[in-house]
Structure formats: C-alpha cells, structure tokens
Task: inverse folding
C-alpha cells in the first residue's frame, strides 16, 4: 500500500487558518492589555508623584506655628504659595523658630518649589515637582467653582487655611503618546503641630 | 508534521499567551487595589487631621450623630460620616457613604429622641474601651462629654472595591493641648 506522509493541502490550510485566527485574537488581546497597562502605569506614576509631593509639603509645614503662616487665606479663596516657620526646638526655655520657608507654585514653568529665606539674597530654591496643571482638575478660569470643592479658579497647586489646618490640592498632568491628557489630583490636609509656646518671627 | 502536531503546538502557544495575559491582568488588578487602598488611607488621614483641627472640647459635638448640637446650627457640622471621592460605598451602608467616624459615644435615649453620652464603660474594642477618659483612674458609667481628657477616635473607610468589600481603619487617641486647656 502506498501511504503518504506529511500534510495534505487541506490540512495545511486548516492549520494555517487556525493559527491565523488564534494569533490575531491573542495579539489583539495582548495589545489591548498592554495599552491599558501603559495608561494605568502612567496614571499611577503621575498620581504617586502628586501624593509624594503633597506628603513632602505636609511634613514640611506640620512643624510650623499657625500664626507663622502667610498668607492666611480661607475658602473660597485659595493661594498658590505658603510661607511658614517651623520649630527647631527649645533653648533656655525659649522656642527657637527657623528662618522663613516657602512652598509655592511657579506658574510660568509649572513647577512646585521649596525655598528657605524667600525673597532674600541668600534664597535657596529646590524644585519638588514639574508637570503642574495650570488649574486644578475640573476648574476653568471663569470666576466660578466648577469642580465643587468650594474654591474659585484655584490653580494647579492651592492652599487654604482653616484654623490650624492647611488643606492643599495638587493636579499634575502629562500628555500620553496617544495624545490623551492624563491628570491626577490629590488632596491632603495637615494641622500645624507646634501651637504651644507662642510664635515669634525670626529676626 | 501532522495536524495533531500543529494542534498541539497551537495549544502550547495558546497556553503560554494565556499565562502572559494572566500576568498582565493580575498586575493591572494589583495596581487598582493599591490605588483604592491609597485613596482610602489618604481620606482617613485627611479626616483625622480635620478632627485634630477641631477644638478639643468640640470634637464630640461636631462629629457625633446628633445634628442639633452642632456649633454653628443644626446640620452644619461634619457629623459622623463622610464621602470618599473615588470609592464606592458598600451597598446598604448607613448614610450611603464610605467614611465613618467612631467616637466613644452611646445613645441612652431612643431612636426618635436620642441622648448621646461620652462613656468610659462601652465595650468597644476598636476604641480600646472600656478605659479611663477623664484621668480620674476610674472607669465609671458617667457622661464625660464635658470632662474627657483623652478621646479615642477611629476613622473607618468601607468600600466596594474591585475585588469585593474592603475596610480600612485608622485609630488615634487625641488629647488636649496646653493652650486649649481651661
């Protein structure tokens, strides 16, 4: 009997067809998953950065006295900078306060920076983040509270002060390769811990 | 090569691709779970800071379940619950919100006419009760709304997450700072 080995044309076509169908489905699913993952990773990065910066600002301000805060701005007015002095400890029974420090948004370059001795010749600045959105997520400059947070036309970094608490919000944004604008907004509240002993402006 | 061999190869290829997809979706799921956790932790911390910002003697009035004792008029205070943006409250949760503030309070009145008291003798493990709240070294059954010197607080966030119901609890013991002392 003459038995043929290998594939017939029909078998080969069937196998190729199967391979093509399965491959297309798998590649499609993997592409979609990879795109989703990329977008998710990007969003996580931006959000983590926003959280990290607000936590850093929170830790910086936490040791201050509420009377040292400038400007003392309450809702619905927000400010893009905050100046404060932190307690350095007690010497001879007197509380020692630091030189003024400042955290602010530099709108022109969309950066948040920390500085000590602000506005002085020896001012030292450190940029804490870039990518700050011009306005907080959902807000447009129209004299109204568009995002329902009680603030009007607040910028990408905003501070409000209520008694001993400082509420801060930050929106970071990045344009993805797909052209989509990815925004992440984080809000944080800290209370000034050093309220005992009074505060005296450093000379 | 036979059809069976091609089919086996395809199956192996499919299983490998499936495993890769599984890893991708799993990492995506983990990121979502972490994000939920971060939102919940951040909301709980922010609420704890808000409570800390309330004058010590007013914390109970501003964060209890009685809207009629609020400092600036009925219903003006934060109360015992709060909404958490970005998280869905559990189905059937009281008030339909994800955040809850738990204080050492007990209602000795009725549902219609509630009378809330700060008590040391409540058996609430979340708050570390029973314990002395006014510093007299005794655990009694009196109302300590006006003389508590330590106030245990738990901020709870319960939400319906990507993988089911989740809960986060943040505990703190607040005390009066010297400048506020009478």
Result:
């Amino acid at each position: 009997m003459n038995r043929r080995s290998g594939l017939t044309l029909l078998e080969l076509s069937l196998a190729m067809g199967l391979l093509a169908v399965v491959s297309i489905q798998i590649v499609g699913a993997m592409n979609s998953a990879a795109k989703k993952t990329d977008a998710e990773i990007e969003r996580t990065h931006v959000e983590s950065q926003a959280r990290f910066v607000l936590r850093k600002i929170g830790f910086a301000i936490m040791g201050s006295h509420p009377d040292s805060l400038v400007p003392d701005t309450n809702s619905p007015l927000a400010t893009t900078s905050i100046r404060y002095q932190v307690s350095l400890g007690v010497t001879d029974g007197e509380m020692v306060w630091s030189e003024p420090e400042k955290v602010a948004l530099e709108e022109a370059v969309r950066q948040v920076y920390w500085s000590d001795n602000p506005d002085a010749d020896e001012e030292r600045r450190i940029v804490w983040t870039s990518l700050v959105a011009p306005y907080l997520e959902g807000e447009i400059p129209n004299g109204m509270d568009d995002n329902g947070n009680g603030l009007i036309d607040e910028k990408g970094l905003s501070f409000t002060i209520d008694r001993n608490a400082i509420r801060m919000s930050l929106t970071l944004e990045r344009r993805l390769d797909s052209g989509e604008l990815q925004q992440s907004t984080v809000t944080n509240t800290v209370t000034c811990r050093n309220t005992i002993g009074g505060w005296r402006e450093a000379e | 090569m036979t059809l069976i061999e091609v089919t086996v190869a395809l199956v192996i290829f499919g299983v490998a691709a499936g495993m890769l997809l599984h890893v991708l979706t799993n990492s995506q799921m983990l990121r979502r779970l972490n994000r939920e956790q971060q939102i919940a932790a951040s909301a709980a911390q922010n609420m704890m800071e808000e409570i800390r910002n309330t004058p010590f003697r007013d914390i109970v009035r501003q964060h209890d379940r009685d809207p009629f004792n609020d400092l600036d008029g009925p219903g003006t205070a934060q109360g015992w619950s709060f909404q958490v943006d970005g998280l869905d409250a559990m189905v059937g949760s009281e008030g339909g919100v994800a955040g809850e503030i738990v204080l050492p309070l007990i209602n000795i009145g009725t549902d219609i006419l509630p009378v809330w008291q700060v008590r040391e003798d409540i058996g609430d493990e979340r708050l570390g009760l029973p314990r002395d709240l006014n510093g007299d070294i005794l655990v009694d059954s009196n109302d300590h709304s006006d003389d508590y010197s330590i106030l245990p607080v738990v901020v709870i966030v319960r939400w319906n997450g990507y993988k089911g119901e989740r809960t986060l609890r943040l505990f703190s013991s607040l005390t009066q700072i010297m400048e506020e002392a009478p």
Remarks:
- Chain A has a mean pLDDT of 86.
- Chain A has one domain: 35-191.
